[in-house]
Amino acid sequence: MAGIEQKNIDELLNSITETDDLDENSEIFIIEEKIYKPPRKPILKFNIPYKSPVVKSENLIYNPESNICCSEEKVVVRDLNNYMKYISRNNKKQI
To answer: What is the pLDDT at residue 6?
Structure first.
């Protein structure tokens, strides 16, 4: 501490303690207090299907898609992994 004298340290400490409450740092702190919002409680999310699928044999869910055109012999089907498949109406075999 050879380069800094006790007199200079005392002056710096006095200048810090004598500043007003509304200096730059406290204004920033006040703005941060206004912005802070407590975390909201978690909202339970329910997975509601947009259509009620009917489970059929071979782990397939019959859920015809309106935007996909098929012939009358084929049906659009989603399996349990949500992959789309086409099956025949007559013999229920995967095409």
So the answer is: 78
- Confidence (pTM): 0.18
Domain-wise residue ranges, the chain:
6-35
pLDDT of residue 9: 81
Summary count for the chain: helices (H), strands (E)? 2, 4
Distance CA 95, CA 78 (A): 13
In 3-state terms, what secondary structure has residue 38? coil
Task: Indicate the residue type of 68.
Answer: I
What are residue 10's phi and psi, to 5 degrees?
A: -60, -40
CB 75 within 8 A of CB 62: yes
Q: 32: phi > 0 → left, psi -120 to 50 → alpha, else beta; which? A: alpha
Report the run of H or E that residue 78 belongs to, with start and end.
Answer: strand 74-79
